[in-house]
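Incident review: delayed structure delivery

Summary: a single-chain prediction request sat in the queue longer than the usual turnaround. Root cause was a stuck worker, restarted by the on-call engineer. No data loss occurred. The affected request and its eventual output are reproduced below so the record is complete for anyone auditing the incident later.

Affected input:
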Amino acid sequence: MAAKLSGRHVAGRIVALGLLATLGCASQSGDHGSGSGPTSSTPSATPAGGGPATSKAVRVTYDGPGANRGNRRIHLVLLVSGTHHARLDSEIATYPPMSSVWDGRRLLVHDPEEYRPWILYEAPEEHPDALDQVTGWRVDPTSATFESTCPSAAPIGHRTILGRTAVGYRCGPIHTPQYDREARSIWLDEKAGLLLVDPPISATAIEEHPVITRSTFSTRPPAGSEVTVYGAKEGEGQPGRAPGFRLERLDGGTARLADYAGRPVVLAFFASDIVFDPAGEECRRCIPSLLDLQRETSGGAHPAVLAVQGGDRGKPGHLMVPRGLRLPVANDPGYDVQHSYGLEQRVGFAFIAADGTLRQVIDGPATAPQLRAALDRLH
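Output delivered after worker restart:
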């Protein structure tokens, strides 16, 4: 399951699971060309034993302390029914309650802290990080993605957890550009394939045949609510035109894509709250990737670079811009421009050629070599 992209994981603090130091990370967003969405890696619904997943409804309650920043308490309630319905409700101290609901076709996320509290994914398979948050609790040790969840997995036997037979695996450490995770042991329900223990959280209650109502797995936002909608992306093909925009600059005036007509430009998107993570505890490469781009483009001059700040712009004299970033910055309060480019991580990049075609996007922190390669494609 994906690390929590705090303050901006697909337009929201998706379940704040980064506090759990990823709970598996079966998929990672990365570098993909224009016209192609993130590679789908929806976890298999096959249980740990390799047989068909249970079609019965099951509710699992998880509790634990926060993995980061002290003793933030975590309370999660997962409800699954068959292989195509799942709901996750989360309560994490200091954050308002959140929910993610998947009906097998669409994904609806509710995050009260976001600019638009409801996020609807019409094609959630194109957004695997968001989908994994609610579907990634069912784990198949025989699947290709299990190595990402549990590197160098070694069986450690069976035990009884909440009256159910669980199979355990010792997992090696995980190292990614965004986070590190120490070696740990996980336990899976042998019958249903559901995760029962993945430090720092553990299942504290399991209920079979819970009551399910018409609204339990509804992905219809409440009437009159503010909703961000991610529609299905267009199919693969030639690079398309970069979406236009008009945004307010933090230093005054406006910024438009038309301002860069006839010359290449790079848009460097970032969530404003990365300023609260200067040491990279939640996203190791977020700020460094922005500074790498600044350096690789000679301060945003060759080619031109416009930094696009998502969310709160800050106050005069205290703008929410990472220390050391000297690029021109425009504010995208509702992440609408970032969404229009198909980007959903805390940091992302769009590389636009002189003729206005979108040559490449990188959804997530990029390394200096990745940035150089993308810049080369603009020539």
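Verification: The chain has five helices and 24 strands.
Action items: add queue-age alerting; document worker restart procedure.
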